[in-house]
Design a protein that fits this description.
Shape: globular
Number of helices: 9
Distance between the termini: 24 Å
Helix content: 25-40%
Number of strands: 10
Strand order of the largest sheet: 1-2-4-3-5-6-9-10
CATH topology of the domain at 9-137 and 218-287: Rossmann fold
Radius of gyration: 19 Å
CATH class of the domain at 9-137 and 218-287: Alpha Beta
Structural class: alpha/beta
CATH architecture of the domain at 9-137 and 218-287: 3-Layer(aba) Sandwich
CATH superfamily of the domain at 9-137 and 218-287: Alpha/Beta hydrolase fold, catalytic domain
Order of helices and strands: EEEHEHEHEHHHEEHEEHH
Strand content: 15-25%
Length: 290
Amino acid sequence: MADSIIGPTSHYFYSQRLKLHYVDWGNLRKPLLVLVHGGRDHSRNWDWTALALREYFHIVAPDLRGHGDSDWAIGGSYSMIDYVLDLTQLMSAITNEPATLIGHSLGGSIVLQYSGTFPDMVKRVVSIEGLGPPPGMIHETPAYERMSNWIAQMQTLARRKVREYMSIDEALARMREANPHLSEDQARHLTIWGVRRNENGTYSWKFDNYVHATSPYMFNSKDAREIWGRIKSPTFLIRGAESWAGDWVKDGRFSAFKNARTTTVEKAGHWVHHDQLAEFLTVVSRFLEL
């Protein structure tokens, strides 16, 4: 990001006794736009989007619990219901009016769940790769087996040490390995904001290792479709052509929405808003009628 550009200010709110962080890009007299990041990510991954849209909106981007500069949840409570509660608390803290929501991946799921639960509080909603796993990736297993696997996973995470990187460049290499579509500048920016410096001079990612845990309760497509069907606002579902997330038109998930449109962005993987930023901004601006 150019040094001459003034960035956002930091603020905090509380949810379930956790002190949660968000950034505010100003322009308070404009309509509110809330940007919600995905798992193991952070609020500053939206900087390019915020810079492009802040002329039109008052933009706020939270760090989810266990991510960025927000508190880690004692006990490792990182379920969808917790995240939706946190978004509800944020909205209650900053607005009494309906807002526009954009979310990516986990954040995309969160904004859809919120929009279906509180449909009158949402003007428009954009979900990037946020419908969860496609039906073909969901394999039913006995409940006791899922519970046993989850307990073993949590015990393993309790013994897992935070990974340390000797330098920003070493962490940056891991970032680029995770998403080869990123440019050098993008990866460096995301890395700088995504790590904290340890007392011994090494660097570690800000997110809590417990966010890796997979819930023993299977993704409930019936409940999800019921909530999606309650969304009143115009809805825009965006997917990357090279993503694992599946085609929700072909597999039937898209039919759950009453007022939705969808698009597939070519030469983009899971992080559409990074992989093809210009195309993402074009289609989103058209949807937002800017």
